[in-house]
Amino acid sequence: MGNNEEILLLFRKNEQQGFRLLYASFYDPLILFATQLLGDAEEAADVVQECFVDFWANRRFNSLRGSLENYLYSAVKHGCLNYLRNTRRREDKHDVIREELYDEEEGVDPELVEKLYRSMESLPEERRRILHMVCMEGMKYQEVADQLGVSINTVKTQMGRSLQFLRKALKTDDYLTLLFFLGKK
């Protein structure tokens, strides 16, 4: 019996021992594989860890058909591709915002940009994270809810509260500028 079958059998008998053997057998090779794809060992470790957690939390070992090794490498590859796509989307959004906010033809004052970012940084952590994901990363409310493990109503409520806070924190013209730029995203 190969190591892959042994891991799956152990998972079915004792999940913790199965996970330990899975980790010991595949963690380092998967990190190397993901690092080749991402070029960053720290990000690679995050992707591999997420794949392991998904494998265990969603009990993928119960329905796995075929090779465990093939499944893990495929899951890590897709995790890396998703990471790269999301990073690229986030960087593109940041570039667009930066260009628009600093475009002298638009007449946006760099002090206003600083004030907007300071106001957004003073939001509570969860609200700031949701505002960032929706406005800066361009994610839909349902995507944010799924990623954070909260309901879509929570995302809507937190967005409303974030915008309400920013409206109070900023002058009317500054808030309208913020809405203009966020609305274009």
TrEMBL record:
Protein name per UniProt: RNA polymerase sigma-70 factor
Keyword Transcription regulation: yes
Coiled-coil annotated spans: none
Family named by the database record: Belongs to the sigma-70 factor family. ECF subfamily.
Annotated NCBIfam families: Sig70_bacteroi1, sigma70-ECF
Limits of the RNA polymerase sigma-70 region domain: 22-90
PANTHER family associated with the record: RNA POLYMERASE ECF-TYPE SIGMA FACTO, RNA POLYMERASE SIGMA-70 FACTOR ECF SUBFAMILY
